[in-house]
Amino acid sequence: MYEGNRSDENSFPKKKIVHLNPFQLRYIMKTIQTHDWLESLKPLFKKYGTRKHPLEHKNHYQLLVMVVLSARDSDKHINSIAPALFERYPSMKELAKATPEDLYPYIGKVTNFSSKAIWLTETAKVVGKDENIPHTIEELTALKGIGRKSANVIMSESGDEMEGGIVDLHTLRVSPRIGIAIGTNPVKIEKQLTEKIPQKYWKQLGMSLTFLGREICRPTNPKCPECPLNGVCEYYREKG
After folding, report:
1. Domain boundaries 60-158, CATH class
2. How many CA atoms lie within 13 A of 117 on its CB side?
3. How far is CA 76 from the centre of its chain?
4. What is the pLDDT of residues 3-47, one digit of tens each?
5. Of 30, 104, 124, 173, which sees the most CB atoms within 10 A?
6. What global pTM score does this model have?
7. CATH number of the domain at 33-52+165-239, please?
8. Rounded distance, CA 79 to CA 93, Å?
9. CB 64 within 8 A of CB 135
């Protein structure tokens, strides 16, 4: 997951810029816009649409904390350290009384733990108690350590109405590869995805593309014959 104190966009690896002439760009955009992507993605939704989020949270508070901690770290690792943390700090109320240093014994092996400890304790002091955790992108991204992608994850897993799509490193890579979007900017990729797929499918879309990128559409040696989208995928078609 990409994250940080407003560092979502900065945490992506730099990509080589490919310049397209106006004719090429218009052709690509027209093709993308006229394609029935909802129909094409149905096999993907069937495979991954009901999968649970990898972070093993039990409530809204745990979800927010774990999402912040998982930035540039693995969900598996965060799942392993979370129980002890939540036993000591079971809610925002208890976390608000902690100093960043108090969290070190529990999150000291997490990537960028010192900054995350500051963000979490400051957020706890601002929010105060679990029922005050925000339910909108604007309010969530005002908190330390939560960018747009993380806010979308929190809202999605909390059952809130989605205001955008979840675009992590996997979705950022997979979307242009299959041909549903172009570019390397996560905000622009999100906009293209949400313009093509109805809002009620945004949660399925984000999680399905993430799992596809993790399990099949790997950066190198993707397992194209196994992919439920190989019938519409530009990369597979060009690969021949």
Report:
1. mainly alpha
2. 19
3. 15
4. 444 444 444 455 555 565 554 555 455 555 578 999 999 999 999
5. 124
6. 0.83
7. 1.10.1670.10
8. 22
9. no
